[in-house]
Specification:
Layout lengths: L2 E7 L8 H15 L5 H4 L13 E8 L2 E9 L3 E6 L5 E6 L2 E3 L3 H14 L9 H9 L3
Antiparallel strand pairs: 1-2, 2-3, 3-4, 4-5, 5-6
Helix pairs in contact: 3-4
Length: about 140
C-alpha cells in the first residue's frame, strides 16, 4: 500500500537535487508547454513562469521504499515521477488524477484519498475511497 509522506513546501531551487530540478522543469512544461529551467520555474521574478504561489513535493512510499515523487503546483495541478527519475507516470489536472496505467492509477488514487489530496467532488473519488477502505 502506497502512502504520501514527507510533504515539503518548495520555495527555492536551492532546496532541490539535480533530478528534482529536472522534474520541476518538466512539471512546468507539462503545465504550459514552455521549456524553462528550474530556476525560472521557482523564481520570485514576476516576469518568470513561476510555480511559487503553490509548490509542494511529496514522497510516495510503500513498505518504507520510495516509489514516486509527487509535485503539486498552481493549486490544482501536479506531476508524479518514478522516484529518483524524470519519468513522469501521472499528472494532476484540475485536482483530478490522470494516469494511463490502471494499476498505478488505483495505487496513486487510493493513496491520494488517504492523504486527503483528492477532493471528494472528483469523479473518481468514490472508487478510490472504496479501494482505500477495502469495500466493493
Amino acid at each position: 500500500m502506497a502512502d504520501f509522506t514527507n510533504r515539503r513546501r518548495i520555495t527555492s531551487v536551492a532546496q532541490l537535487n539535480s533530478i528534482q530540478r529536472e522534474q520541476i522543469a518538466l512539471c512546468g512544461a507539462a503545465y504550459d508547454d514552455e521549456q524553462l529551467p528550474a530556476d525560472r520555474r521557482l523564481s520570485s521574478d514576476p516576469d518568470d513562469e513561476s510555480v511559487l504561489n503553490f509548490c509542494e513535493l511529496w514522497d510516495v512510499v510503500a513498505d518504507g521504499s520510495p516509489l514516486y515523487e509527487a509535485w503539486f503546483y498552481q493549486s490544482d495541478s501536479g506531476s508524479i515521477f518514478l522516484a529518483g527519475t524524470t519519468e513522469m507516470v501521472a499528472q494532476i489536472v484540475q485536482c483530478g488524477l490522470e494516469c494511463a496505467d490502471g494499476e498505478r492509477e488505483l495505487e496513486l488514487g487510493t493513496a491520494m484519498v488517504r492523504a486527503g489530496l483528492l477532493p471528494p467532488g472528483d469523479s473518481e473519488f468514490e472508487r478510490f475511497r472504496r479501494a482505500a477502505d477495502g469495500t466493493p
